[in-house]
Specification:
With 412 residues, the protein is mostly helical. The strands form three sheets. It has a two-stranded antiparallel sheet. Strands 3-4 form a two-stranded antiparallel ribbon. Strand 5 and strand 6 form a beta hairpin. The protein is globular and about 65 Å long.
């Protein structure tokens, strides 16, 4: 039995998000028509809010620990009110942005199974956006003197967002091919899992009640991304399919830095913990994320080694990968370029620790220099062109990065 109750939002907003779906995600009708063919035994998609149980009736962390959770937005005073609104806004923006991104290359799916996995991900992201609308809509106290109805203003803004105008950078990048769909589901949706887990303690009860059901659905997103990435890697190892290991590496180089930045500044996050919105500071969560992504990359590498060298055990594959990574040389026919590598956390960063952002760090974490001086912006852009997807270089978000980097150095 479901461990949540379902409900809907005000008809005006329900109709508004259905209208948004018809414009941005008309493919939902295809998913609904063929749901049982691909997800037999799984309850069909329903656009509704799922209201789960609280882990505790009291706030679990921060300055309000031990007191009853906030049931109404008006109970959150000062910066807590707006910080909560900002988290809801950002969460909802990610869901809507990801749908707009996934649809760009949906028809390039490597097979029907991959296509319908992405369609289901998109549908559940739509429901997650609906959930955030419920958090705002069910509470009439999202108002502030002189500012009016904050909930209505936020919902209206969210419905008007287009690619390039979402809250977080990762959700403004146009997908260039289906490898983006898969890499994104693997490393960007994984950040979503961490955020949802941290927010289960949320001191504002409606937000906390939303996390459990969303996490249950997020598990499918992560599993699908990992399975498809492994499948693409195995095809690449056989010399089949549209994507090479280099293509996979470049996609990882693009998406992983943006995933790291979704945690915020590595040295920040205290405010969210103080208000009881999250149970970990940014750096702690980001470190755990890095290790999980490292494990995902290793699993893909093991699968590729086993594809190249049949009858190799997982244990032997791990040992071989260790040897290649340690010596940076070929072993048993496996060369470093036959394996994926995790970029250094300092690589290609535009947000975070001031010692890292816009600095010319290489993929491996080395500060790139010329004549003993760090590379100029133009020099670093030349380097990035050799390690990022060609389809990304010269695009809107790349050009935005270039402009921001130049402005950063002009102001120093």
């Amino acid at each position: 039995m479901a461990n949540y109750a379902t409900t809907t939002i005000t008809k005006k907003y329900h109709d508004a998000i259905v209208g948004w779906q018809q414009k941005n995600f008309p493919d939902l009708a295809i998913l609904e028509k063929h749901w049982d063919e691909h997800f037999k035994g799984v309850p069909p998609f329903e656009l509704s809010a799922k209201v789960g149980n609280l882990q505790s009736d009291t706030v679990e962390i921060g300055q309000y620990a031990g007191r009853k959770r906030f049931q109404c937005a008006k109970e959150m005073v000062g910066n807590a009110f707006f910080s909560a609104r900002d988290i809801v806004r950002a969460q909802c923006s990610t869901e809507l942005g990801s749908i707009q991104q996934h649809r760009l290359t949906l028809e390039q799916a490597i097979n029907d199974r991959g296509k319908f996995a992405v369609l289901r991900i998109m549908a559940e992201e739509l429901r997650h956006a609906y959930q955030m609308f419920w958090v705002l809509d069910q509470d009439p106290t999202w108002k502030k003197p002189g500012l009016g109805d904050v909930a209505k203003q936020t919902i209206d803004e969210l419905l008007s967002m287009e690619l390039g105008g979402h809250v977080l950078d990762a959700f403004n990048i146009d997908f260039g091919d289906f490898l983006d769909n898969v890499t994104y589901a693997t490393v960007i949706d994984l950040v979503g899992k961490y955020q949802l887990e941290m927010q289960q303690v949320f001191s504002y009860a409606p937000m906390a009640r939303s996390m459990g059901p969303m996490l249950q659905e997020e598990a499918f997103h992560l599993g699908s991304g990992r399975k498809l990435l492994k499948e693409i890697g195995q095809m690449a190892a056989r010399g089949e399919g549209e994507y090479s290991v280099e293509d996979m590496q470049r996609a990882l180089n693009l998406w992983y830095p943006r995933g790291l930045e979704m945690f915020g500044n590595e040295k920040g996050g205290e405010t969210a913990v103080t208000f009881g919105f999250k149970d970990k500071e940014n750096g702690v969560a980001q470190t755990e994320y890095i290790e999980e992504v490292r494990g995902i990359v290793r699993n893909v590498n093991v699968a590729m080694v086993q594809e190249r060298i049949p009858d190799t055990s997982r244990e032997a594959a791990h040992a071989l990968i260790d040897e290649v990574e340690k010596n940076h040389e070929s072993a048993r026919g496996i060369m470093p370029e036959n394996l994926l590598a995790l970029p250094d956390p300092k690589f290609f960063r535009k947000r975070g620790d001031p010692e890292v952002i816009f600095r010319p760090f290489s993929f491996s974490g080395e500060l790139l220099t010329e004549n003993g001086v760090p590379l100029s912006p133009d020099g670093y852009l030349q380097y990035l062109g050799t390690v990022l997807p060609e389809r990304f270089v010269g695009g809107r978000e790349y050009n935005k990065y270039v402009a921001q980097m130049r402005e950063f150095f002009e102001c120093r």
